[in-house]
Amino acid sequence: MINALKKTLLVGVGAAVVTKEKAEAALAEFVQSGKINAADARAMARRLARQGRHEFNAVRTDVETRVKHLASTSAAATRARIAALEARIAELEGRKPRTRRTKRSAKSA
After folding, report:
1. In a domain, 7, yes or no
2. Does 1 fall in a domain?
3. pLDDT > 70 fraction of the chain, expressed in percent and rounded
4. Is residue 105 included in any domain, yes or no?
């Protein structure tokens, strides 16, 4: 499960890198074509980076919260299963073991 989360996060980081490169290329193209000036392009790039970090942090916080909840729920279920098994073992240990009659003990009786 942890590996799946790591892979998911790495895919997200990879997508962010590709998106950043595409955004930089698009901004450079806008500057070259004269649609915006270089200062505006830099400001846009900073704004995009800031928004990206904000969204990444929000997603990370959400994922951490969900993983902690899942872990605590799983731990509670595990504790309940262990308690049920311990009760069952105690019940079984409380019974007298069945004795199996062997051929020798049957002959002597």
Report:
1. no
2. no
3. 70
4. no
Would you tell me the crossing angle of helices 2-33 and 38-94 to the nearest 10 degrees? 170
The amino acid at residue 75 is A
- How does pLDDT run across 37-89, given as a tens digit for each residue? 888 888 888 888 788 788 878 888 888 888 888 888 888 888 888 889 988 88
How far, in Å, CA of 35 to CA of 29, rounded?
9
Report how far residue 20's alpha carbon sits from residue 63's, in angstroms, rounded to the nearest whole number.
Answer: 22
Q: H helices within 1-109, ranges in order? A: 2-33, 38-94, 103-108
Q: What dihedral do alpha carbons 80, 82, 88, 91 form, nearest 10°?
A: -100
Alpha-carbon distance of 93 to 86, in angstroms, equals 10
Q: What angle do CA 80, 86, 90 make, to 5 degrees?
A: 145
